[in-house]
């Protein structure tokens, strides 16, 4: 009998983490490598949030807490949902986990039976399909190409729904493309969902605060209140507050679902770190003015990266609405040969040759379910970005 389960064998390890690790190994071996593969802001966690964590330690808030969050954090989350999204939840409708990742995982584990389908628009965040598989469900991937701005159309959604569809996973602004759905575009999708009452919506709003050029963020239960009773609205402090290592994510949704998620968490990890929970209370309740500085820095970097990548031969780079990623197409590079002799047959050979020959680590599009593209995370210094984009331009110019 094999050691590893058949379910686990269908799952692949996170390619973004693999690429980041490869770049770190090359760096450790003395190679000059610029990493553009990690999905986290380069800013430090703001001082007032760190101070709240230090206070929590000094006050002895270092013991087990309620499984899915301390009452103070649940209250801060309820206030946030009401203030920013117009969504009213009571405390039984809030779940706090160890990062948005655990919250999504809990929800899928709590709800999927074998054969249940989950619609995942591609390009997708790398973990969605594998989380669905781990939970025993079937990911139904819907490719949303560059021509539709990497966004799913109502017709595509309608065509993907079957009697077995349990969830639609919705992510705006998106990792990996940065594409954001306007209120009208989202309404087009929620209108379809209103016609299919058996389909639930998992909205991953992780990049809510990172939107640019006046883009208006909206979330499904807000745009269509008729979906409130079958929507899980997921968010977290990782990206907006530069708190990726603290591991706090949360969700609001129907009490029965939240109770199911609590059951999963109670038998796996129990409560998220008590100290991080107090830090998250401060993140949500405290001053928010620094978010403007984060947004300005990201928007400036986005503009620079989009301009420099569009100047690279064979590369086309759309301008995203939010997050801190761009997802350029390399259609114009396919079939060419790099100076080292590698033929660029797909985005994986492109990314590998780029790393080996030019020392720039990006993530190939196949990892996100849409090719031929690559993802750049521009959450790094302006100097590193300029250097990396110049290297990409040279790499592309040298392709024959
Ligand atoms: C779209 C999306 N959802 C969820 C997460 C998970 O965030 P967390 O660090 O809170 O687990 C990420 C992190 O990369 C993400 O990009």
TrEMBL record:
Listed EC numbers: 2.6.1.-
Molecular-function annotations in GO: L-aspartate:2-oxoglutarate aminotransferase activity; pyridoxal phosphate binding
Superkingdom in the source lineage: Bacteria
UniProt entry keywords in alphabetical sequence: Aminotransferase, Pyridoxal phosphate, Transferase
Reactions listed under catalytic activity: L-aspartate + 2-oxoglutarate = oxaloacetate + L-glutamate
Cofactor: pyridoxal 5'-phosphate
Domain Aminotransferase class I/classII large intervals: 32-392
Annotated InterPro entries: Aminotransferase_I/II_large, AspAT/PAT-like, NHTrfase_class1_PyrdxlP-BS, PyrdxlP-dep_Trfase, PyrdxlP-dep_Trfase_major, PyrdxlP-dep_Trfase_small
PANTHER family: ASPARTATE AMINOTRANSFERASE
Name of the featured protein: Aminotransferase
Annotated organism of origin: Tranquillimonas alkanivorans
């Amino acid at each position: 009998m094999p050691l590893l389960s058949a379910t686990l064998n269908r799952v692949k390890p996170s390619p973004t983490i693999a690429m980041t690790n490869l770049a770190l190994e090359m760096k450790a071996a003395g190679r000059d490598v610029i990493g553009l593969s990690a999905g986290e802001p380069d800013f430090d966690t703001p001082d007032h949030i760190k101070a709240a964590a230090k206070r929590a330690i000094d006050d002895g808030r270092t013991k087990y807490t309620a499984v899915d969050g301390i009452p103070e954090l649940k209250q801060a989350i309820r206030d946030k949902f009401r203030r920013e999204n117009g969504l009213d939840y009571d405390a039984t409708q809030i779940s706090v986990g160890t990062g948005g990742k655990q919250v999504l995982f809990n929800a899928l584990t709590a709800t999927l039976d074998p054969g249940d389908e989950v619609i995942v628009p591609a390009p997708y965040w790398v973990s969605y399909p594998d989380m669905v598989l781990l939970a025993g469900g079937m990911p139904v991937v819907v490719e949303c190409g560059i021509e539709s701005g990497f966004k799913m159309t109502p017709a595509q959604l309608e065509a993907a729904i079957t009697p077995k569809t349990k969830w639609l996973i919705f992510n705006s602004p998106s990792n990996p493309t940065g594409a954001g759905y306007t209120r009208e575009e989202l309404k087009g999708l929620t209108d379809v969902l209103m016609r299919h009452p058996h389909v639930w919506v998992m909205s991953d709003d992780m990049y809510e605060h990172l939107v640019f050029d006046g883009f208006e963020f909206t979330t499904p239960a807000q745009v269509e209140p008729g979906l409130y009773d079958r929507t899980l609205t997921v968010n977290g402090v990782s990206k907006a507050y530069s708190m990726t290592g603290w591991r706090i994510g949360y969700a609001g949704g129907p009490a029965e679902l939240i109770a199911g998620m609590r059951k999963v968490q109670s038998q796996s990890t129990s409560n998220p770190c008590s100290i991080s929970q107090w830090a998250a209370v401060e993140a949500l309740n405290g001053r928010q003015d620094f978010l403007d500085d984060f947004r300005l820095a990201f928007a400036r970097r986005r503009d620079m990266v989009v301009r420099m990548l569009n100047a690279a031969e064979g590369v086309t780079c759309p301008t995203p609405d939010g997050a801190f990623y761009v997802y350029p197409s390399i259609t114009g590079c396919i079939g060419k040969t790099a100076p080292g002799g590698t033929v660029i047959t797909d985005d994986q050979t492109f990314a590998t040759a780029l790393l080996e020959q030019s020392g720039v680590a990006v993530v190939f599009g196949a990892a996100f379910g849409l090719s031929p593209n690559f993802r750049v995370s521009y959450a790094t210094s302006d100097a590193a970005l300029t250097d990396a984009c110049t290297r990409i331009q040279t790499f592309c110019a040298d392709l024959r």
